[in-house]
Amino acid sequence: AIPVRSSRLPLLSDAMPAPAHLFPLIRNCEISRICSTVCYCHHKHLCCLSSHFAHGHFRYAPQKKFATLYRPKENFNHFIHARDYASTPQRFYLTPPQVNSILKANEYSFKVPEFDGKNVSSVLGFDSNQLPANAPIEDRRSAATCLQTRGMLLGVFDGHAGCACAQAVSERLFYYIAVSLLPHETLLEIENAVESGRALLPILQWHKHPNDYFSKEASKLYFNSLRTYWQELIDLNSGETTDVKEALINAFKRLDNDISLEAQVGDPNSFLNYLVLRVAFSGATACVAHVDGVDLHIANTGDSRAMLGVQEEDGSWSAVTLSYDHNAQNKHEVERVKMEHPKSEEKNLVKQDRLLGLLMPFRAFGDVKFKWSIELQKRVIESGPDQLNDNEYTKFIPPNYHTPPYLTAEPEVIHHKLRPQDKFLVLATDGLWETMHRQDVARIVGEYLTGVHHQQPIAVGGYKVTLGQMHGLLAERRARISSVFEDQNAATHLIRHAVGNNEFGTVDHERLSKMLSLPEELARMYRDDITIIVVQFNSHVIGACQNEEL
Amino acid sequence: AAGMFLRLLSDVRWQAANPKWRRMTCCRRSASSTAEPHPVSLPAQAQVVICGGGIMGTSVAYHLSKMGWKDIVLLEQGRLAAGTTRFCAGIVSTARQVSVELKMADYSNKLYQQLEQETGVNTGYVKTGSISLAQTQDRLISLKRIASSLNVMGIPCEIITPKQVAQLHPLINIHDLVGAMYVPEDALVSSANVSLALATAASRNGVQIHERTSVSHVAVQKGRVAAVETDRGEIKCQYFVNCAGQWAYELGHSGEEPVNIPLHACEHFYLLTHPLKEPLASNLPTIVDPDGRIYIRNWQGGILSGGFEKNPKPLFTEGRNQLEIHNLQEDWDHFEPLLSALLRRMPDLEALQIMQLVNCPESFTPDMRCIMGESPTVRGYFVLAGMNSAGISYGGGAGKYLAEWMVNGYPSENVWPLDLKRFGTLQSSRTFLRHRVMEVMPLMCDLKVPRWDFQTGRQLRTSPLYDRLDAQGARWMEKHGFERVKYFVPPGKDLLDLDQSKTFYKPDWFDIVGSEVKCCKEAVCVIDMSSFTKFEISSTGDQALESLQYLFSNDLDVPVGHVVHTGMLNEKGGYENDCSIARLSKRSFFMISPTDQQVHCWAWLKNRLPDDSNLTMEDVTWKYTALNLIGPRAVDVLSELSYAPMTPEHFPSLFCKEMSVGYANGIRVMSITHTGEPGFMLYIPIEYALHVYNEVMNMGQKYGIRNAGYYALRSLRIEKFFAFWGQDLDAFTTPMECGREFQVKLEKGMQFVGQEALLEQKQNGVYKRFTMFILEDHDTDMDLWPWWGEPIFRNGRYVGKTTSSAYSYTLERHVCLGFVQHFDEKTGEELVVTTDFINQGEYEIDIAGQRFQAKAKLYPFSSLFAQRRRKDEVELSGYQRE
Question: Which Pfam families does the entry link to (chain B) (predicted)?
Fold first, then answer.
């Protein structure tokens, strides 16, 4: 029934037989779904790549945030290259172990340590993972426990126009948040320690995958900016206890401000100078969770998303979104942007669902192209290193650019009191949400974490069931959940589904294998970088806290 | 079935004497509140209060009352036999690995058999026999080993072929079997009814039974049980027995003086079916299929089948106010592997209709053996719990031993493997227990090969040198929570991984240990032996000497700086502990005991030392790292490091001196090695441990020093005929029986514990004798290796069992140590064992059914070790521990 397999079919040709008129419909969110349907019809038709497809592909394929802006030529080259590659005679599939090693390369798990069998934290632990589509990946993730205050910080960062900004934010943001949360005395103590050269109190305990690196070269610069921030906080001493929401907003804004300032001031060291400019000219969204007991705060800037997994009384799973996407689909965001600029600009502000027709997220770190005045941009670029001047993108000034800033890093903060039925939190970049509905995410993670698919537990009750029937039933159920046991990490499991799901919502190995064996240059057309953190909550502790409060 | 009427029992003094109690309770239910009898109030005091009305509590009450103790109150928080006992599968199986467990099961079987006649309560006892199946050759070997020990105990048992299995049981698929063990006298009972029968008999003997009475805690005064607090008032008492099953841990911790009872419950599942079309006969043998992890018995014409899955579900028992057992959920998905195994074993059952999947909790302990005995911290506080799902098999015997223990002060068998005091506080962490029971429950069915180790709850106690040794290739085993080196894998050499190295034959470390032994013989080795229990006993005056002279059999009034090997004996002259004591000064002593003596020895001495503030005893185990320098060049290494002459003229054997080694001062150096080889033990204050170790290794290089582990030590000590407490020696072995008369000073000028018994033995002779056996026709490469517990035959007749064994690299033979008894050929009566009796016999050792010729020796081959006579003479058959 599958004669095609033996033919010398290029990899991409799976997508070919689809009627040409479909292609204009392909969007970020659609591509995978269409892909899966065309995979199913490829047995019937044989044809080769049409130029039509190539064009359609350039215009509509998920070319991330600056889709139409640059590199069409490059892409075409890639395409030609891909064709060469694809027409090589061997058609190869990744074996399940190969698939697993790719999926698991970046997985990380952290379990909050127990003390004598008891975990007093409301967090049991978290799983995180990343699957790159860009090379190198532009997503970043961070997780840390606050040591001087209570609580845990977790965040995902989606970079665009390079990874520099996402990298910087992933290294720095939690320090800004932690400092914002610190009481006056602790700040004083830290400042005095720095002043007198004593050892510093550790502020954060990081939970990092070996691939999550910190820039050594910039640490001094970053530290100095941070120190200036806490010195100002000390001087400002409001005497009031810090409100988490306020602290989060301040930290986000301050860091973005520092990024901008560092780029304006520059650095005598040429490497650092180029670094701070790359950070400022690239951009990143951030979605950060702060968990302290039953208090969960989500601070979000951009289009990553936080979602709470809730287990209903009947055991089923539902999703509660704890962040608003800052993009063109969010009416309030569009309103906000329009409010902030003169009426005359109104029709140019949002074009093709992008800010100024260019940027998909409506809030972001960095991206000084959307924040600085034209004069400032020109001045910095001219005085900057040659590499910066050679880059067409940095030199390009957005059209209709009259009243900057058009972009802000200020987050929207949502506070949620955790309840015993709130079992987990998923933080993920848009790479996940483009391919999966939140309801499916809640179900898949929930079933993974509890180890049971939501299939009614079997009870024999008064029915007549024989051992043989029961055995058959159980074997069938086990086969269904066996995919769960392949993964030791909830985030990995979710990625497996996001990339490998067929239209029936189950993982199709063949599809998974194809998606993962796409050459670097093509991967980005079929999927985006995916970064996921799944935080598991401790319902016992949350229940106990709740009772105390009652 | 038993549950039906149990549920009807209500809150009254239990009138078991009334034979019509069943009907009576039924009536009571129908009459409900109108005829509610008044609960009988609790007595204000009693000699013994037993908490728990399951099989354990009722068995203890039964045996205590039989032994003449009458003033006993048994309290049950819910209803009698309503806990694990009610759900128990009711299989009485004698196929046990540990000898004392085997004896308990055998006794239980015999007790239950006559219980119905004795009490009039129907116990449902049916002698069905049991068949344990082997799917692999290794499994068959382990069954053969059990069969050997059952046979010499007089319990009928045979190894049968798959075909014979099919003849005994019509439903079994035998295609994947290699053999089986048939124990025809194993039985089935209704466990709840057995428990009720025991309660009935106890009640007739005067035991008061109160249901619906829960114990809140035990009040302690001056380290003794004073009273029991219940929800219905207080009972003053002298003895308390904790038979609270899965709640025993919490109950132990509820008082102000906590009693650590390390056990944790797991969910346990079994299946009940409707009867077959042609109902199964009630005498059909019970099937145990350990490779499939299941057991199957006939049950009311259908079957009852459960098992021990690989992924157990530990139960959370926090808050012990639950009356009886939760209604635990049936979990079919969890049961699936066991159901598969069942249908594979009995394919014809496919069409059989399910009745119920029962989920009942079972308590498991950290080492798979039950917990029995007196608390080391509270006198009069006894415990019997943690049956590892063999409660009904052990119930009778365990209750008997505990009753004997309470009445006589000691049980009639060596129960050290089950003694509560083998555990300390270190095993009572909840996390430890949860992790360990997850390992223990699957182990119930796993193959137990020689030298297996637990994998969970590890790296708890370690020497400061742990990381250093680990980096050098150390492989570890654990004793009393302490990590100890087995051997060192040389760089570049790969051993099999854990699963594959499980073997009954020659293990893969054979050559590695051989080279360590060779180094001990020819050069010098270092073994980290920090796990030893170390106490310091000192006083302002002569109190320490006087007390120790009374408690130990050897003469401790030696010049300062001498080390004495001595037993700590009980009244019957048996070894409670075997130790080395160094006299540090006129008034202070340093005592070294085996690792697992930490709790037992402490309690023993605490209870017997005079209550004198001028006499102090301190546990200094954690303060010292112990390094054993073994080998002829140890003397050179140490003298170079200390700038002091260490030759025998300057540092005679059994000598102890504080000296400096390298930069470190205050190192206690003793000229003993626990192996009979020349060398020294170094007791190093832990902060100097790394320094001294580094110095020793650096200096030792030119003498060919290397690390060694306990396997080498074991081989050395066994070929030198050194007995080891806990393995060879126990509370039922006297120095006279193991050739250690020279370690006893009967005439030391004062009385000591056990003196009378020893004098009597000296006069009348001994009834067992510790003997060394050299296997003659045993092929090390091809034959099964001995382990311990192998039957010994003299002129074809069973005379005893081995207690330990090792390969001697010097003799190039296996050496087994064990005890020889002399049973009268006609009456079976025990006779005195003389030297002639030992020497004039042809011996064979039975390893898994195969007999090997052995040469018996009462003294080690000193000629082989002639070049090292110097040491042997002093330490000869002296002493050793692991």
Answer: DAO, FAO_M, GCV_T, GCV_T_C
